[in-house]
Design a protein that fits this description.
Layout (H helix, E strand, L loop, with lengths): L9 H4 L1 H12 L31 E5 L22 H8 L3 E4 L9 H5 L6 E7 L5 H11 L6 E6 L9 E6 L2 E6 L5 H12 L6 E7 L8 H5 L3 E5 L9 H11 L4 E7 L11 H17 L4 E5 L9 H13 L5
Parallel strand pairs: 1-2, 1-10, 2-3, 3-4, 4-7, 7-8, 8-9, 9-10
Antiparallel strand pairs: 5-6
């Protein structure tokens, strides 16, 4: 992609070396999957054939222990023993997980193997850290070792303080919301994913109560949107806000985010809000308005929270529902 002066962008200059890196990563033999000579998943393409059950369309947002309830604990979460991401989703009865690791440290082989029985995994490439390239390269290195890795997550892609950059399109110059990596880097990532030897989904986190029309060009480059409502009180406007999102992104594959703690208020989520968002989620899923749900988040599951147990029982009741 070229900038407004017609120069090749920094992202373009790195595309050739990045593609060589990707090619080398995928040269790893398939028998090395999960590092023990076996693979538990028949093929990545098969994982995009979802079963006709609500449960199979459910994901969980995964964080390693201590991310939210560690030393700083500014969200006022109850303390509890550590629980791993795979153990947490097993407890909830959720087959798929987004692994959000803000630390760039390379996961060791035992950590990678712990996901071998997870049906589908998505891995973060963009989040709180500014070092996008390191997160990106880590995710691409993991692909040959994880046959169930099917997606890359752009967490908190749009910046909270809404500013804009301009890009040139076939429809002329348009404004785009500023993001953590920039629109040129997003375009380059889209090209990289499209060139991979297996299908990988690009997923983007957005917040409906912060949505702007200028978000549309960025959203258009993602395969799937993970739609969240940050403040619990704003869940009262969920239908209204989601309709605004659909006006910007009609037909976009979307997972509805389900918070089980009010991180905006740093307090327990009101149970009426919890019930209401799941009622709407079920309505949207049945009508085809959304493709599935994503529950936030794994560190909450063993804290004795009423919202978590309600969600777990709700899944037990509706998980096998077909549409």
């Amino acid at each position: 992609m070229k900038d407004m002066q017609g120069r090749g962008s920094k992202e373009d200059c790195g595309m050739l070396s990045r593609r060589r890196f990707i090619g080398g990563a995928f040269a790893v033999s398939a028998h090395l999957a999960f590092g023990d000579g076996t693979a538990t998943v028949a093929g990545a393409a098969d994982l995009f054939r979802y079963e006709n059950t609500l449960r199979d369309h459910c994901w969980m947002w995964g964080h390693d222990p201590g991310v939210y309830d560690g030393r700083n604990n500014r969200n006022n979460l109850p303390l509890s023993p550590k629980v791993s991401i795979p153990d947490a989703i097993k407890y909830m009865g959720i087959p798929n997980v987004s692994v959000i690791r803000w630390k760039i440290a390379e996961p060791d082989s035992d950590y990678v193997r712990s996901y071998r029985d997870v049906k589908r995994v998505s891995w973060v490439v963009c989040g709180r850290l500014k070092d996008y390239e390191s997160l990106h390269d880590q995710a691409f290195r993991l692909m040959p070792a994880m046959p169930n890795l099917v997606g890359l997550d752009l967490d908190d892609y749009f910046k909270s303080a809404r500013k804009f950059e301009t890009i040139e399109t076939d429809k002329g110059v348009v404004k785009v919301t500023n993001s953590r990596i920039g629109h040129a880097a997003l375009t380059a990532l889209r090209k990289e994913i499209d060139a991979l030897p297996r299908k990988i989904e690009l997923r983007m986190t957005i917040y409906g109560d912060k949505l702007r029309p200028e978000d549309a060009p960025g959203i258009a480059l993602a395969d799937t949107v993970l739609y969240w409502t940050w403040n619990g009180t704003n869940l009262a406007e969920l239908r209204k806000q989601f309709a605004k999102y659909r006006a910007i992104a009609p037909g976009k594959r979307t997972l509805l985010g389900i918070y089980m703690w009010d991180f905006g208020a740093h307090a327990p989520l009101d149970m009426q809000h919890m019930k209401n968002q799941l009622d709407i989620a079920l309505e949207f899923y049945r009508s085809g308005e959304i493709d599935g749900l994503v529950f936030h988040c794994t560190p909450l599951v063993n804290k004795g929270l009423e919202t978590v147990e309600y969600a777990r029982n709700w899944l037990a009741k509706h998980g096998e529902e077909r549409r």
